[in-house]
Amino acid sequence: MKTVADIIGQFENPTEADKHLITKAYDFAVRAHEGFTRYSGEPYMAHVASVGFMIAEMGLGPRTVAAGLLHDTIEDTPVKAKDIKENFGEEILFLVEGVTKLSSVRYYGTDRHNESLRKLFVATSQDIRVLVVKLNDRLHNMMTLRFVPKEKQLRIARETLEIYVPVAHRLGMGKIRKELEDLAFPYVYPAEYKRVCGLLEKRAGKSSEILEKERKILQKKLVDSKLIDFNTSYRVKGLFSLYHKLKLKNWDIDDVYDLLAMRVVVSTVEDCYRTLGIVHELWRPLPGRMKDYIAFPKPNGYQSIHTTVTTTHGIILEIQIRTRKMHHESEFGVASHLTYKQPSTTDNPTVGSRFSNLIPSLFRPFTKQSVSETNILIAKGIPDKEKIPQWISQIGLLSAKGKSSNDEFINDLRQDFFSSRIFVFTPIGDVVDLPVGATPIDFAYTIHSEIGNHISGVKVNKKQVQLDTELHNGDLVEVETRKSAKPTKKWIDIAKTSIAKRHIRAELGLPSPK
Ligand code: MN
Predict the structure, then answer these.
(1) What is the DSSP letter of 43?
(2) In angstroms, what is the span from residue 402 Cα to ligand 1's centroid?
(3) Which CATH number fits domain 194-330: 2.10.70.10, 1.10.10.60, 3.30.460.10, 3.40.50.2300?
(4) Of these four, 95, 237, 390, 432, which has the most CB atoms within 10 Å of its CB?
(5) Separation between Cα atoms, residue 34 and residue 163, nearest integer Å
(6) Catalytic residue among 12, 42, 76, 386
(7) How many angstroms separate the alpha carbon of residue 102 from the centre of ligand 1?
(8) What are the DSSP calls for 16-38, one per residue?
(9) pTM above threshold 0.70
(10) How distant is the alpha carbon of residue 471 from its chain centre?
């Protein structure tokens, strides 16, 4: 089990106050979870200690780490909100309650409304730190999923792929996304997983030695070209993302050009372009494969130069070139703005991976090495205290009117629904999004016109209500129908959505307005 010392050891320059806070949260969690065990038979504390550790490892501040240690107290133990507030203050209570609330956003096994569910998930979190805690909570749950009863595994793994992975992706958190999807993959698509493993083994079985050789050649060339301040690493493509690629390529693994990738991380953008020139001088580039995501970042903010080359040994290799800052952001996304840890400037030997133990032994050799890419993230920086950029802390605030941000996703969130949409649940847990001010009539017609046309009564949060009741975020809405029930003219004024108004007019035989 991770100890307090393990967690504090992840901090660069912890103050006495930081150490005190983490120790206090750890001891509090030990007492709260005493006597509870996980499905694995481990003490429950092992779970929250791991979550706290992983958050510290990502470089977040002591309050977020404390929230990670305390994240299951309110939900799973007799601890009350006021106990957390008295002992740790409002901010940590806010984070713990945020994580607790997120447990109610659940995937119920239908693919409808997944996009709404993802948005609801982000909106409910209210603060990016809540999402970071929740994503790490899920990561540890996925690492220990094999101990969970069989009938629960599939739902949890699918929820991970449908909700957590896209959220991590949209927030640019590439590292946690890759880990989550590779952990969920074998549960959700067992046959495909085996097939991908088989193809990869055949094709990339001996690739780690070859990659190591090629890496040495590239390193020497970069040094000869007077480029000094750089790190190189390589990775084998994640199994789940390889699966998606293979589906597009008729399962021909020879058509997957980024199966093996070498990464060069340098200090400046200028050095990125210099490196590109050096690489193309060394190895022959494949035509049309160069992508400049530095000049044209991906929608989630990802920046890098990609090019595909054939090495002198005939190996097809994708080369990814980026600055340290870009690398840090591609691993941690929006959370990178919250981290204390700064990318280091020198090569660092391998960091152990929490992931490598879980991979079938057949992949261990190169998975382990592919993880060496994380070595660039060892911290050397000066703590920046828990300063949260305003636009990040405002994620999820319904009245977000902060400064305009270039981030497409955040803007999308604000315009699309913070100001104008609400999310309500059906009795079976589907999420339906509606405009602000929508009523049960709008809800019913959004589900199906036949339900709208025969409403006989409505319950919101298990209570009978009038048809003109305004719905609110998170309401559970149940519509009762009766064959003989019919809409009235008044409903046209009550309804807010054009789809409901149109159906009501049609049912009443009224002409549609021009
Ligand atoms: Mn948990």
Answers:
(1) B
(2) 32
(3) 3.30.460.10
(4) 95
(5) 31
(6) 76
(7) 11
(8) HHHHHHHHHHHHHHHHHTTT-B-
(9) no
(10) 29
Distance 71 CA to ligand 1 centre (A): 6
Give yes or no: 75 in active site. yes
pLDDT of residue 349: 25
The DSSP symbol for 511 reads P
Q: How far apart are CA 167 and CA 494, in angstroms?
A: 35
CA distance 492 to 501: 5
CA angle 164-168-174, nearest 5°? Answer: 130
- Given the residues 27, 75, 201, 270, select the one marked as catalytic: 75
Residues belonging to the chain: 514
Q: Taking the domains of the chain in order of start, what are their residue ranges?
A: 4-176, 194-330, 361-508
Residues paired with 266 in a beta bridge: 230, 323
Q: Which CATH class is domain 4-176?
A: mainly alpha
Of 445, 448, 456, 458, nearest in space to 498 by CA: 445
* Banded pLDDT at 119 (limits 50, 70, 90): low
Q: Kindly give the distance from the C-alpha atom of residue 6 to the centroid of ligand 1, in angstroms, as a whole number.
A: 19
Name the residues around ion ligand 1, CB cutoff 5 A.
72, 137
Separation between Cα atoms, residue 180 and residue 178, nearest integer Å: 6
Of the listed ranges 16-20, 173-177, 426-430, the least confidently predicted one is: 426-430
Query: In angstroms, rounded to a whole number, what is the distance separating the alpha carbons of residues 411 and 61?
Result: 26
22, 142, 219, 393 from 181: Cα distances, Å: 30, 10, 31, 27
Residue 234 CA to ligand 1 centre (angstroms): 32
Q: Does domain 361-508 have CATH number 3.10.20.30?
A: yes
Averaged pLDDT of the chain: 80
Q: How far is the CA of 99 from the centre of ligand 1 (A)?
A: 9
Question: Mean pLDDT, to the nearest integer, of 484-491?
Answer: 95
Burial class (CB in 10 A: 0-12, 13-18, 19+), 290: middle
Q: Where do runs of H (alpha helix) occur along 3-146?
A: 4-8, 16-32, 45-58, 62-70, 73-76, 81-102, 114-125, 128-143
> Each residue of 178-221: pLDDT tens digit?
999 999 999 999 999 999 999 988 877 667 788 888 999 999 99
Active site residue 91: no
Contact 33, 74 (CB under 8 A): no
Q: Do β-strands 316-323 and 260-266 pair in parallel, antiparallel, or remain unpaired?
A: parallel
Q: Yes or no: say if 383 and 13 are a contact pair by the CB < 8 Å rule.
A: yes
- The count of other CB atoms within 10 Å of the CB of residue 435 is 14
Which amino acid type is present at position 252?
A: D
CA of 48 to the centre of ligand 1 (A): 6
Query: Among residues of the chain, what percentage have pLDDT more than 90?
Result: 52
CA of residue 65 to ligand 1 center, whole Å = 13
How many angstroms is it from 143 CA to the middle of ligand 1? 12
Report CA(155)–ligand 1 centroid distance (Å): 16
